């Protein structure tokens, strides 16, 4: 028990150093810190919980096997999200999934069960927006998910998906226009 408490107090960079040295408990702590973010993002990208789970597992496996390639221990989160992006891209390209699970957001985020009419309306609109996001091409979808769902800044997204910040901004602009087109008949404004 004492060692687990020690692990919880270490920074990501400290845990990465230990993981690179073969400490599996350090990897377990990093996994516990990031599993919710990675799973949620993978579900949002893939459109369903089953593929999200596969993408998450593959992402963490690659992170563990290639941790020695991480140059900046302080940038673990962005490196992990970069692996997630590449993994999701490859897996979805292979699957060529065109029909997302419309309940993926509910499965990815445990929400309370107190549903009033207002909350039901918000959920319905949220699902409509999510379905529209899932219709975007992958390169547009990933920036929308990282920006709006995960709250990342454009500079962080650019580092994560390995492109210029201007490209991220352009993709966000293009995605916004496309989403407005997809949602205009639903009376939902973005």
Q: In brief, what are we looking at here?
A:
This protein is mostly helical and 190 residues long. It contains 10 helices and no strands.
Report on this model:
- This protein is mostly helical and 190 residues long.
- 74% of the residues lie in helices and 0% in strands.
- Helix 4 packs across helix 5, helix 7 packs across helix 10 (165-183) and helix 9 crosses helix 10.
Largest pleated sheet = none
Instruction: Report the structural category.
Output: mainly alpha
Strand residue content:
under 5%
Total beta-strand segments: 0
Runs in which pLDDT lies below 50 for 5 or more consecutive residues are 110-115
User: Helix count, per DSSP?
Assistant: 10
What letter string, H or E per element, gives the SSE order?
HHHHHHHHHH
**Whole-Å distance between the termini?**
48 Å
Rounded mean pLDDT score: 83
Q: Please estimate the helix content.
A: over 70%
Task: Name the descriptors.
single chain, 190 residues, mainly alpha, 10 helices, elongated
Topology:
Blueprint: H1 2-9, H2 12-20, H3 24-46, H4 49-65, H5 76-95, H6 104-108, H7 117-135, H8 138-149, H9 154-161, H10 165-183
Helix pairs in contact: 2-3, 3-4, 3-5, 4-5, 5-9, 7-10, 8-10, 9-10
């Amino acid at each position: 028990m004492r060692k687990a408490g020690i692990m919880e107090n270490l920074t990501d960079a400290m845990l990465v150093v230990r993981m690179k040295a073969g400490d599996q408990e350090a990897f377990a702590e990093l996994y516990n810190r990031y599993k919710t973010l990675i799973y949620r993002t993978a579900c949002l990208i893939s459109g369903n919980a089953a593929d999200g789970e596969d993408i998450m597992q593959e992402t963490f496996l690659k992170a563990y096997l290639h941790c020695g390639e991480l140059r900046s221990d302080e940038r673990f989160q962005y490196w992990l999200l970069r692996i997630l992006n590449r993994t999701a891209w490859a897996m979805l390209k292979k699957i060529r999934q065109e029909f997302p699970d419309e309940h993926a957001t509910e499965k990815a985020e445990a929400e309370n069960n107190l549903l009033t009419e207002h909350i039901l309306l918000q959920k319905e609109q949220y699902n409509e927006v999510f379905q529209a996001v899932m219709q975007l091409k992958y390169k547009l979808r990933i920036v929308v998910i990282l920006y709006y769902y995960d709250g990342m800044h454009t500079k962080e997204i650019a580092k994560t998906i390995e492109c210029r910040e201007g490209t991220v901004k352009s993709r966000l602009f293009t995605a916004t226009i496309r989403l407005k087109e997809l949602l205009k008949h639903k009376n939902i404004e973005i």
